[in-house]
UniProtKB/TrEMBL annotation, chain A:
Gene3D superfamilies: GntR ligand-binding domain-like, Winged helix-like DNA-binding domain superfamily/Winged helix DNA-binding domain. Keywords: DNA-binding, Transcription, Transcription regulation. It comes from Microcella frigidaquae. CDD domains: WHTH_GntR (cd07377). PANTHER family: TRANSCRIPTIONAL REGULATOR, GNTR FAMILY (PTHR43537), UXU OPERON TRANSCRIPTIONAL REGULATOR (PTHR43537:SF5). This is DNA-binding FadR family transcriptional regulator. GO terms for molecular function: DNA binding; DNA-binding transcription factor activity.
Length: 246, 251
């Protein structure tokens, strides 16, 4: 169920004097660089402290800071551990840099995966969701409408897609959607015209909800696929506009 | 689904499956009620009637832990259990939860949810079916199958009853079981029908099925052709069993 990984690539950079804040920063940059992904479980504390070359107490301070910022959660129990649950929200400059580094074909492939996963989720949600759970989805869609900034809207947009995956009742597809949303949501919102994006996303989400309410899997998959095509076009346009030499 | 359909006459094997499933849920409900009564008593003696739920939870923590440990000992397939409190003022203050899950060493450990309403990962449990139905109606309820996103993050069912202390509803006492473990418990009972059958929740969602034509999570708004829907006389008759008329294609 959970991905594990070997020594983290940043470990050799850590100095023994690095404090908790430095540990937190290093983990954050690993997430931003894609070395650690949302959903991943961190190695046990003792092991991680060794990799950083810090005392276990120092490491705990760093993790505690990330917990306060809701970047990681620590779960107890049989399948417990410390998990990355959210990527730090990137600045417009960071998004620009990511788009500059990505080729159009990379972006197309990201979109292809999102369309495949998203449409399957929409189809399943339409055949499995019932009344009150659909109203909850509609309430989450309304948060996009109320969002005042691109960052808020991106977060609300992600939450809508994740809730749809919850309604689809497939833990595997939910994990895939959570990962995809952490990668894609900022790219969809940060560099595009806010009002215009919001009005397209709102109306797209409404079409999906309508199909889910009607328990129409085919219509839901189609509406989602169209929605994600719109997102993909916006993302590629953003890439083309910041990279005039292309 | 309403229960206005005329009551069909089940075959003896279908009745055997219905009875076995009903007994299983009645026993589960009895265990849950037993735990709830004990926890209510623990909380009543540890608090006075003016205590808010946060103080109540704190005073009862050790007692709840001990009682949940007993339940998880008796029910190896139950994942976790405890009491989830209603926040005294909706939308204000943090959620209050005393929920215990198995740790890796055969004991229990307290599960902590995102209880801060301002947080990105706030577990807004007072809007969820497993909380609202039992808390507002006082009925025993089975929620699921559902993915408990931001909760225990598993694909589960949750059985709940209302907890009352000093004559006041304070929250719901519940237990979780993964859908996979529920299947291990109930599939043998469904097979007593000797024909394709599927257990449905109150919304017509499939909990467990002995036929590949109906998978867990599928929504059945009307019985498919060739199936009877029989109410399960347990948990307020909210569950039902779909059973094929014809055993020919029984698996």
């Amino acid at each position: 169920m959970v991905q594990e990984h070997g020594p983290l690539p940043f470990s050799d950079e850590a100095s023994p004097s690095a404090g908790g804040a430095a540990v937190a920063e290093r983990i954050l940059s690993s997430i931003s660089l894609g070395l650690l992904t949302v959903g991943e479980r961190l190695p046990p504390e003792v092991e991680l402290a060794q990799q950083f070359g810090v005392a276990v107490n120092t490491l705990r301070k760093g993790l505690s800071e990330l917990r306060d910022r809701e970047i990681v959660v620590t779960r107890r129990g049989r399948s417990g551990g410390t998990f990355i649950v959210r990527a730090p929200f990137p600045s417009p400059d960071e998004v620009r840099e990511r788009l500059r580094e990505s080729s159009l074909v990379d972006l197309r492939d990201l979109r292809d995966e999102q369309v495949a996963v998203g449409s399957a989720i929409a189809r399943l949600a339409a055949t499995r969701a019932w009344g009150t759970s659909i109203e909850r989805l509609a309430a989450l869609a309304a948060r996009v409408t109320r969002a005042a900034t691109a960052a808020e809207a991106a977060s609300a947009d992600s939450r809508f897609h994740i809730e749809l995956a919850v309604l689809a009742q497939s833990p595997r597809l939910l994990r895939a959607e959570v990962r995809i949303q952490s990668e894609m949501a900022p790219l969809h919102w940060i560099l595009s015209d806010f009002e215009q994006t919001r009005s397209v996303v709102e109306s797209d989400h409404e079409s999906v909800i309508r199909a889910v309410r009607a328990n129409d899997g085919t219509a839901a998959a189609l509406a989602m696929s169209e929605h994600l095509q719109h997102d993909g076009v916006r993302m590629m346009d953003a890439k083309l506009s910041i990279d005039p030499d292309l | 689904m309403s229960s206005v359909e005329s009551t069909p006459t089940p075959t003896p094997t279908a009745s055997a499956a219905v009875d076995a499933v009903a007994q299983w849920f009645a026993a589960l409900h009895a265990d849950l009620e037993g735990m709830n009564r004990d926890i209510e008593a623990i909380l009543s003696s540890a608090s006075d009637p003016t205590a808010d739920v946060a103080r109540l939870a704190k005073a009862g923590r050790d007692g709840i832990k001990d009682r949940v440990r007993v339940l998880l000992g008796e029910r190896p397939r139950v994942n976790g259990a405890g009491l989830i409190f209603s926040r005294s003022a909706r939308g204000e203050g943090k959620g209050v939860t005393e929920w215990w899950v198995r740790d890796g060493d055969g004991d229990v450990t307290r599960y902590q949810f995102g209880v801060n309403p301002g947080g990105q990962r706030f577990y807004d449990y007072e809007t969820l079916e497993w909380f609202t139905v039992s808390f507002t109606t006082g009925r025993p309820w089975l929620t699921g199958p559902y993915i408990d996103y931001l909760g225990v993050e598993e694909y589960i069912v949750t059985a709940t009853v209302r907890a009352e202390v000093h004559g006041r509803a304070v929250g719901v006492t519940g237990l979780d079981m993964t859908v996979a473990e529920l299947e291990r418990e109930l599939l043998p009972l469904l097979r007593l029908a000797r024909r394709p059958s599927a257990l449905l929740n109150a919304h017509g969602g499939v909990l467990v099925s002995s036929t590949s034509s109906l998978a867990p999570g599928d929504l059945v708004t009307a019985p498919p052709a060739g199936f009877l829907r029989l109410p399960i006389p347990a948990l307020d008759a909210t569950l039902s069993l779909l059973v094929a008329d014809d055993p020919a294609d029984a698996r």
